[in-house]
Amino acid sequence: MRVLGVDPGLTRCGIGVVDGVAGRPLRMLGVGVIRTPADAGIGDRLVLVERGIEEWLDTHRPERVAVERVFSQHNVRTVMGTAQASAVAMLCAARRGLPVALHTPSEVKAAVTGSGRAEKAQVGAMVTRLLRLDAPPKPADAADALALAICHIWRAPAANRLQQAVAAHRTPRSPRSTEGRIT
User: Considering the entire predicted model, what is its pTM?
Assistant: First the structure.
């Protein structure tokens, strides 16, 4: 499975592609950051994020996209920019018919380090180890994007089984036929 991980942000949008399956060694195909100038208008910045994501989608042809779920912080302005960049990533994936999964920061940290409260340095160190890299990707947004992709690869099989079980449980059963019965 090839997954594009997106750590959304307006100033720095981390992006990384990981290929592999759960239980086997993973391989990094690319990592980087889409940057936008802080003095540009919001519309222009979102266009730059979109162009960057589209370029990564064209280059790496992922099968799925994993995006960090935006959570409320104290700085509403930061949250809004992050949410807008997140929406751009989901839109780019949806245009191509790619499934999108949202993962919380603590879910990603727990998947990669074993602790949902891990520090950024721990996440970077584990990403480096898991992908057999020479050094942690810089900046932290790039390492976070790879961590998102790794988390999704590892959690997707269980999530798929859960979705199938829920779907099977919700499938309406046909009513028993009363034909030929005397009531």
Answer: 0.86
